[in-house]
Amino acid sequence: MTVVCASDMHDKSYGSTGTMPVFGAVVSAKSPDCILWNGDYIDDDGVFSTATAQDWYNFLESAASEFRNDGHMIPMVFVAGNHEAINIEGDGNGLWG
User: Fold this and answer.
1) How far apart are CA 2 and CA 33, in angstroms?
2) What sections of 1-97 are H helices per DSSP?
3) Could you give the angle at the alpha carbon of 31 between the alpha carbons of 79 and 71, nearest 5°?
4) Is residue 32 helix, strand or coil?
5) What is the signed CA dihedral for 41, 82, 45, 12, rounded to 10 degrees?
6) Number of Cβ atoms within 10 Å of the Cβ of 37
7) Mean pLDDT value across residues 79-97
8) Biggest alpha carbon distance in the chain?
9) Is pLDDT of 95 > 70?
10) The whole model's pTM is what?
């Protein structure tokens, strides 16, 4: 089984000129059985808003379209990172505050 691990896509450049298409092409060429995304996708720090919802949509749409093998989406597993959480005081991310 071939697994690719990916994380820290902080730049939000998911369009045709961003890093996601380049990364998707490199990963897809390896024909992995799945991709493990281990956190820090959009830097929302646990804040839910219209803007962060759009960021999540853009990230997931890009991931689904860029990571393909023979026309099929490569299965993906997502794990939350510290930038997807908020600390107990509610004023920063879950790890660094």
Assistant:
1) 5
2) 19-29, 50-66
3) 95
4) coil
5) -20
6) 21
7) 64
8) 47
9) no
10) 0.73
